[in-house]
């Protein structure tokens, strides 16, 4: 990861310097080299200022593990602050310019651009959101989802959902289970329990009480009666349902032939489902009277019914995104040897768009203030944007660092990763400033829109869902509002 970071940093520095070397200095207060260097350093400082909360939050996450409610409130607060910053600093100025000036361009190089600027903002936002989703999926596929609770929850929940859908497809092959309405399938999913058997292990014996049934996911099970083998069952088949239905003793012995994985459903749980679903109870009576055949052949119509039932059940399933256990997180981390680099890249694409916007916003304010003389540093700070990014970075880094610590990361490695992102954000501020001075203003607005789209997608896809799952809607709502109002209040410093 260190080598990749250094190479990436050098590339960004070269790009920044090469672009800025040819950027027009007429937009600044003075054409001298000293002003060029000074404003570049200002842009770099602003990028670092907004992201310095990353290592600060990481340090807090290393030494303290807050409750889920506190973490949720802080994340929601940061999400609200970032929403306010993006709305006020990026979207509102371009929209107002379009309303005031129509299709014409706005003089002065400010946040305007007229109708063309608004179109560029909309297009850039859409592209930025799509690009963020694509890049996020790429790094997540290599372990980058472990960078924060929200992405970990989403990834593991998606994997869990896929596993449940596969299980539902197998359950759908059993006719009497298809009698359960889709709205009752949640009970079935909650009651089944994964279990495994070693080769040669006896699952149940002939004459045993039928206290559970099994849905085989993998492996093979041999059935025998009186010492003679009857048949072999494999993945997707059902074991022990007759005794569960009739209450009679087992009519055969079942022994695992290979390593076997199955989903077990206890009789008492199955009886609860029967009691809650009259449709299932009626089907049970019919099937019991007909002495359900173990090797029933499913015709084309039944196969189609099974497919439809599985799809409806999956759609109706109220699959909550539960917080993964530490064991699940550690197991997921062990599956990806390149997870550290992917985590770093994931945090990179989360944070760099903001630093670019800081640089371009700084330039817009600088041009405006330069018309009335040489501005001071405090006069060209985009306070609301800095505040929004600062307040959103802190809880995200804190929550992510708690997760990294749970994965076994050491404190120096965690803090080093977040510190490296401060350096990258500092360079990103210079790149945003340099490009803003070099290219047409409409292009700048489109690029800002791309960054805004990426950040808005990140808020909706990661921050708010994470806060809801950790603390609940009652915590997230007021916290998001508080963050939004806090960022808006920073406008008082610009008045």
Can you characterise this structure?
The chain folds into 2 domains: 2-158 and 326-493, no CATH class; 174-297, Jelly Rolls (Sandwich). Helices cover 66% and strands 8% of the residues. The chain is built from 17 helices and 8 strands. The chain has helices spanning 2-21, 33-51, 53-63, 68-101, 114-140, 149-171, 185-191, 241-246, 267-276, 278-289, 300-316, 326-334, 339-370, 383-406, 411-438, 441-471, 473-489, and strands at residues 193-197, 202-204, 212-218, 221-225, 228-233, 238-239, 253-256, 260-266. The strands form 2 sheets. The protein has a 4-stranded antiparallel β-sheet with strand order 1-8-3-6. Strands 2-7-4-5 form a 4-stranded antiparallel β-sheet, with no helix packed on it. A hairpin with a 2-residue loop joins strand 4 (221-225) and strand 5. The longest helix has 34 residues, at 68-101. The relative contact order is 0.22. Mean pLDDT is 78; it is low at 1-31, 104-111 and 294-299.
**End-to-end C-alpha gap:** 44 Å
Q: Please mark out the parts with pLDDT under 50 across 5 or more consecutive residues, or reply none.
A: 1-31, 104-111, 294-299
Which value, in Å, is the CA radius of gyration? Answer: 30 Å
Q: Which structural class should the secondary elements be placed in?
A: alpha+beta
Described by the principal axes of the CA atoms, the overall outline is: elongated
Q: Return the average pLDDT rounded to an integer.
A: 78
Estimate nothing, just give the exact number of structural domains.
2
Major sheet strand order? 1-8-3-6
How many strands, what sense, and barrel or not for the largest sheet? 4 strands, antiparallel
What fraction of residues sit in β-strands?
5-15%
Number of DSSP E strands: 8
String of helices and strands = HHHHHHHEEEEEEHEEHHHHHHHHH
- Helix count equals 17
Percent range of helical residues: 55-70%
